[in-house]
């Protein structure tokens, strides 16, 4: 955290110009895809689902299993309970998912329907037909929030719908990991490897590292192909500790603690040397083991990378636009290496982490606000929709966040722990070097601004 709080302001424009954020139901769908054999179900029209499906597919370059209740004009007026029931029964019959994650959209939320009541009635009427499938509801209207809120709500809904209440027998080797939506597939794999290096057994929820990791499957699977099993989610109450990553995961961590009494520790970020040191120290404390040699080696590599790369950060002015937790993580990363975060734009204003962003002002707005404030900066940091601003301003763009569709391998990019921070240092340094404009000899001439060409030369006195 910074000593001084940032000033958070909301733009008052009548319209959004070049949107920065993506919708809540999209974030919820991504979280549900982190559960094995799951099917996200958008309760709304086909258009709501298609938009999210296209964005996720372009980012991950994969076939994404998402379905819709496909409400028509009549259902939009009279209510969509029948469409919801029919969709759930069809999914059960055709794909037999372990979990159906219902994500509400703006259309049905505007009507004010009782979704929880409707699902309860569906269970009462069709319980035998739906046996073996968990049905979880996340209320995620498009008109509020963004990816982070949707991800957080879906994770909380999974915990409250699947994890049984009450304390259970605790296994000292088991811990829960609740990662934020800003962490990549590669980040989750690195977190799992680090936790296992201490002899601990992690349960990661949601775990997109198994379902959105980009692999050629041996056979076609109509649901999510990988992720955390529903059976493992049910046993999360038997863990000795929960680690939540990102302010967005505070709500799920508190929900899990309320149901199971499992204590939790929340990390604002896992990007950077100090943040990773705290994470590793906690794992050592929980496991009672010394830090493994390979983890110490990764730390030494990061130290060397920081020594090599910090020359390219000092004095640079950086503009960042992202979801709150990612904005905070990247701003802390740049500020820690000597750069100035002169422009910070958030996709959402709901997170308290924005006040801790190391920038004078944080604007909750769009990419038009970002472009206006980023003029004169040395580097732009945002997702693929910032490429037009980069072209118009003539400032290089570093791709982060969601969606990234004009680069390959976004899901396999490291941004967390020692390895991820090391890779970010190299990436930024390489971008700065590639766009460095060397100064000309005339610019380096210390006398170029003096009119007298004889300055510095001995003068002969006149007789």
TrEMBL record:
Family listed: Belongs to the NifD/NifK/NifE/NifN family.
GO molecular function list: oxidoreductase activity
Function description: This protein may play a role in the biosynthesis of the prosthetic group of nitrogenase (FeMo cofactor).
Domain Nitrogenase/oxidoreductase component: 23-432
Pathway: Cofactor biosynthesis; Fe-Mo cofactor biosynthesis
Any one Pfam family match given in the protein's UniProt record, by short name: Oxidored_nitro
Cited CDD domains: Nitrogenase_NifN_1
GO biological process terms held by the UniProt record: nitrogen fixation; protein-containing complex assembly
Name of this chain's protein: Nitrogenase iron-molybdenum cofactor biosynthesis protein NifN
NCBIfam families for this protein: nifN
Source taxon at top rank: Bacteria
Record-linked InterPro entries: ChlB/BchB/BchZ, Nase/OxRdtase_comp1, Nase_Mo-Fe_CF
Gene source species: Blastochloris sulfoviridis
Stretches the record annotates as Disordered: 440-463
Compositional bias per record (Basic and acidic residues), positions renumbered to this chain: 445-455
């Amino acid at each position: 955290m910074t000593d001084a709080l940032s000033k958070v302001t909301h733009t008052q424009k009548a319209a959004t110009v070049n949107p920065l954020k993506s919708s809540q139901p999209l974030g919820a769908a991504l979280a549900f895809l982190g559960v094995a054999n799951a099917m996200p179900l958008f309760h709304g029209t086909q258009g709501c689902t298609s938009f999210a499906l296209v964005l996720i597919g372009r980012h991950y370059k994969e076939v994404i299993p998402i379905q819709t209740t496909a409400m028509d004009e009549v259902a939009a007026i009279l209510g969509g309970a029948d469409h919801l029931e029919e969709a759930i029964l069809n999914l059960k019959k055709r794909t037999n998912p372990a979990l159906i994650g219902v994500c509400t959209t703006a259309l049905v939320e505007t009507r004010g329907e009782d979704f929880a009541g409707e699902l309860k009635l569906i269970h009462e009427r069709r319980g035998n037909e739906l046996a073996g499938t968990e049905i979880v509801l996340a209320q995620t209207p498009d008109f509020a929030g963004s990816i982070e809120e949707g991800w957080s709500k879906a994770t909380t809904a999974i915990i409250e719908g699947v994890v049984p209440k009450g304390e259970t027998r605790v296994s000292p080797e088991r811990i829960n990991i609740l990662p934020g939506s800003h962490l990549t597939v590669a980040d989750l794999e690195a977190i799992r490897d680090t936790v296992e290096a201490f002899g601990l057994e992690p349960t990661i929820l949601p775990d997109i590292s198994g379902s959105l990791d980009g692999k050629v499957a041996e056979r076609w699977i109509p649901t999510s192909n990988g992720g955390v099993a529903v059976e493992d989610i049910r046993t999360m109450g038997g863990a000795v500790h929960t680690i939540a990553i990102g302010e967005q995961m505070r709500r799920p961590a508190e929900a899990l603690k309320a149901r199971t009494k499992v204590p939790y520790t929340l990390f604002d970020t896992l990007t950077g040397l100090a943040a990773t040191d705290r994470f590793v120290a906690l794992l050592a404390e929980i496991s009672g083991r010394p830090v493994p040699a390979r983890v110490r080696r990764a730390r030494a590599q990061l130290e060397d990378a920081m020594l090599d790369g910090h020359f390219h950060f000092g004095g640079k002015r950086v503009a960042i636009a992202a979801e709150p937790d990612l904005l905070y993580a990247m701003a802390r990363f740049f500020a820690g290496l000597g750069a100035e975060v002169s422009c910070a734009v958030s996709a959402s204003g709901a997170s308290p982490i924005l006040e801790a962003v190391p920038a004078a002002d944080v604007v909750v707005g769009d990419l038009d606000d970002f472009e206006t404030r980023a003029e004169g900066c040395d580097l732009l940091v945002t997702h693929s929709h910032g490429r037009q601003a980069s072209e118009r301003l003539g400032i290089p763009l570093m791709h982060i966040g969601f969606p990234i569709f004009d680069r390959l391998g976004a899901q396999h990019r490291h941004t967390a722990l020692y390895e991820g921070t090391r890779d970010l240092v190299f990436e930024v340094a390489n971008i700065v070097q590639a766009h460095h404009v060397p100064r000309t000899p005339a610019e380096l001439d210390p006398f170029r601004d003096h009119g007298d060409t004889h300055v510095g030369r001995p003068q002969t006195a006149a007789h």
